[in-house]
């Protein structure tokens, strides 16, 4: 700063300001990287994750569930060790939020003393699901929650048993059991509908 003599207060202040600017730049760069990465994930995976939320039973809340998942990802971006696992993290958040929605609906049903069925499908849901899939989705909705979720993760997302177990926080044995029981019940429902 001052090559001819000792540093003055102004010189120290200049160094401090430079340090503050470089610290600010360092603080902005990770946020910018995070925002760019999350935006890229949104562009690439939003439609698929929205379909996942619909298939898991988020109903008219599917868009909100997916938006909340991306918000949680952005908030916790610095804590995610493997950035390639971000899509798995999003799936897990969507699954958990959908579970919370089911719990909430159960409480509402208990307190309202009335049988609340699934909300009528929204226009977005109709656009996301083709006609031939609607019957299967209706049958899926009759399954217990865990069986429903395992079948969607296994056959729609094509996740392995280990990936499903990690996403749902259950053992691989439980995944196999839920898948087996769910497929048996789903087959029975669909065969009954054909006759």
TrEMBL record:
Species of origin: Streptomyces thermoviolaceus subsp. thermoviolaceus
InterPro entries: RNA_pol_sigma-70-like (IPR039425), RNA_pol_sigma-70_dom (IPR014284), RNA_pol_sigma70_r2 (IPR007627), RNA_pol_sigma70_r4_t2 (IPR013249), RNA_pol_sigma_r2 (IPR013325), RNA_pol_sigma_r3/r4-like (IPR013324), WH-like_DNA-bd_sf (IPR036388)
Domain RNA polymerase sigma-70 region positions: 41-105
Segments of this protein annotated with the region Disordered: 1-29
UniProt keyword annotations, A-Z: DNA-binding, Sigma factor, Transcription, Transcription regulation
Pfam family, one: Sigma70_r4_2
TM region positions: none
Family of this protein: Belongs to the sigma-70 factor family. ECF subfamily.
Name this polypeptide is given: SigE family RNA polymerase sigma factor
Lineage, uppermost ranks: Bacteria, Bacillati, Actinomycetota, Actinomycetes, Kitasatosporales
Domain RNA polymerase sigma factor 70 region 4 type positions: 137-186
């Amino acid at each position: 700063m001052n090559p001819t003599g000792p540093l003055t207060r102004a010189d120290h202040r200049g160094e401090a300001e430079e340090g503050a600017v470089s610290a600010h730049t360092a603080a902005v760069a990770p946020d910018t990287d995070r925002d760019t990465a999350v935006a890229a994930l949104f562009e690439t995976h939003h439609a698929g994750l929205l379909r996942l939320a619909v298939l898991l039973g988020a109903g008219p809340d599917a868009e909100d569930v997916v938006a909340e998942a991306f918000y949680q990802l952005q908030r916790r971006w610095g804590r995610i060790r493997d950035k390639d696992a971000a899509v798995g993290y999003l799936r897990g958040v969507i699954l958990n939020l959908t579970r919370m929605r089911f719990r909430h609906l159960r409480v509402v049903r208990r307190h309202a003393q009335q049988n609340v069925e699934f909300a009528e499908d929204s226009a977005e849901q109709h656009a996301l699901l083709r006609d031939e899939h609607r019957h299967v989705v209706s049958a899926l909705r009759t399954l217990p929650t865990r069986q429903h979720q395992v079948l969607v993760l296994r056959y729609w997302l094509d996740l392995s048993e280990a990936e499903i177990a990690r996403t749902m926080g259950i053992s691989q044995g439980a995944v196999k059991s839920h898948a087996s029981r769910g497929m048996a019940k789903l087959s029975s429902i669909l065969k009954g509908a054909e006759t």
